Amino acid sequence: MALRCIAFDCDGVLLDSVPIKTNAFARLAEPYGKEATDRFVMYHTVHGGVSRYKKFEWFFSEIVGRGITPEESREWGERFARYVLNEVRCCALVPGVREVLDKWRGKVPLYVCSGAPQAELHFVLRERGLAEYFVDIFGSPPAKHRVLAELVQKAGVLPEQTLMVGDALTDFNAALAVGTRFYGVGPELEGGGYPWGQDLMRLNAWIEANV
Fold first, then answer.
1. 56 and 136 in a common domain
2. Total structural domains within the chain
3. Among 13, 61, 95, 192, whose Cα sits 20 to 30 Å from the Cα of 75?
4. What backbone torsions phi and psi does residue 142 show, to the nearest 5 degrees?
């Protein structure tokens, strides 16, 4: 079936920003000690693509031993954004991004499907000169699989006509839940039984050969 829509995660797929955000989670946890920091970084790493606010909830529940208040969640979100914003605005693109976007813009509608806050995504992608490539940019909330389902519905295409490009199991599970195709990027997804590349350098060739 013809490809009628491509959805890209942002961190680790468009922008080489995963280490920046990992460091920001570590900075938030540092006042609670090394063990707490290590556990939080591990949780973040295993749950790539999950909203940062869900990760804050986990930290308070599992490490602090109580629920997070709305005020604390907002304050952690503001601190996190301050920690990452300047670096994300100037970090490298994932290799192959420009080639893929230039190849398919105007041929196949392109979208962003990310677990980052939507307003932040719009701002960062405008700053990086990438927003113009996309028909729309979808972020959190809600959860990734709901974001992808909404994207497919608004694009007016069938799930099987959509390719999700992601770098985390959350992305793969979202594609599985919604019924889209999937292309994995980066070390976390290597060897998963789906098409995969270390970056986007081989994605154009794969699409041309297989879709």
1. no
2. 2
3. 13
4. -90, -160
Closest CA to 10 of 139, 175, 193: 139
Last residue of a domain, one of 63, 88, 113: 88
Contacts of 40 (CB under 8 A, 6+ apart): 25, 26, 28, 29, 55, 59, 63
Q: Are residues 106 and 198 in the same domain?
A: yes
End-to-end CA distance of the chain: 7
Whole-model pTM over 0.90: yes
The whole domain housing 50 covers 18-88
Q: What is the pLDDT along the chain (211 residues), one digit of tens a residue?
A: 689 999 999 999 999 999 999 999 999 999 999 999 999 999 999 998 899 999 999 999 999 999 999 999 999 999 999 999 989 999 999 999 999 999 999 999 999 999 999 999 999 999 999 999 999 999 988 899 999 999 999 999 999 999 999 999 999 999 999 999 999 999 999 999 999 999 999 999 999 999 8
Q: Do residue 102 and residue 205 come from a single domain?
A: yes
Same domain? For 97 and 168 the reply is: yes
